[in-house]
Amino acid sequence: MRHLFRIAGVFAVSSLWSTSAFATSTGITGQSGKDGVMCSTCHKGGEVPTVVLEGPTTLEPGATGQYTFIIRGGAAKTGGADIAVDSADAKLQAGTGMKPLGAELVHSAPQAFTGTELRFNFSLVAPSTDVTLKLFGAGNSSNADQKSDGDRAAATTLSVTVGKGSPVVVDPIAEEDEGGGCSAAGSAPVWGLALAGLALLRRRRS
Ligand code: HEC
After folding, report:
1. From ligand 1's centre to the CA of 63, what distance in Å?
2. Which of 7, 15, 71, 105 could disulfide-link to 83, CB 3.0 to 4.6 Å?
3. Contact 64, 115 (CB under 8 A)
4. What pLDDT, in 10s, does the model give residues 14-34?
5. What start and end residues bound the annotated signal peptide (predicted)?
6. Model pTM score
7. Which of 153, 119, 121, 155 is nearest to 136 (CA)?
8. Residue 206 lies inside a defined structural domain of this protein
């Protein structure tokens, strides 16, 4: 019986994999660069495009900001994107040509370039608490042959300070480390030093 479950598990995982491998023209998540990988694992052979994330780098807590992810150059017939954010309390809202998939935004279908440029508009709803978050965007510039070759992707990030931001920039990998607390422990002496320095400065001034 347990054996059967295990086989079912393997089947579920491999069918998931094949969905992501063969249906990415309708969007694929986990490829924004946030998790260390992006579209170029599969999309090869084309010229590398340039990508940029544009929008406000500061937001009030709870405010909504309008952002644009732009792909320029490369094969430049059609393209797609994957947008992610490293704060679970932030929300991404899809604009034209995009759709939400899990917590991320992806292209709903390959989008046609306008000249040498393809723009994806979306909005970011900031968390209600102060934090410094990071937006991740990966974009594929494709030749519209419905295959993964002759295309190429690039990725970029944009830091957004919500309210006063967070004093310690949280490393997403350290955050996942459950036994951890190492990032907090590591930063404590730094804060201590900064405070001591401030105290010294005050004393000198008076
Ligand atoms: C696991 C491999 C794989 C990854 C990773 C992948 N793709 Fe694809 N993609 C494919 C395959 C295979 C096709 C062709 C079949 C199809 O249309 O789905 C394709 C097709 C496309 C097309 C149409 C290409 C054309 O020339 O017509 C676009 C656009 C696209 N993907 C965007 C993306 C974006 C954006 C990413 C990253 C966020 C991405 N893909 C990541 C495998 C992948």
Report:
1. 33
2. 105
3. no
4. 434 444 445 578 999 999 999
5. 1-23
6. 0.76
7. 155
8. no
Q: Is 176 exposed, middle or buried (0-12, 13-18, 19+ CB in 10 A)?
A: exposed
We report the CATH number of the domain holding residue 122 as: 2.60.40.3260
Tell me the residue range of the domain where 142 lies: 25-162
Q: Is residue 66 part of a domain?
A: yes
- For ligand 1, the distance from its centroid to the CA atom of residue 154, given in whole angstroms, is 13
Name residues contacting ligand 1 (CB within 6 A): 20-25, 28, 31, 38-39, 41-43, 78-82, 110, 138, 140, 142-148, 151, 153
Please state, rounded to an integer, the average pLDDT across all residues of the chain. Answer: 82
**CB proximity list for 201: less than 8 A, separation 6 or greater:** none
Q: How many domains does the chain have?
A: 1
Please report the sign of the dihedral spanned by the C-alpha atoms of residue 71, residue 37, residue 13, residue 92. negative
The answer as to whether 188 is a domain residue is no
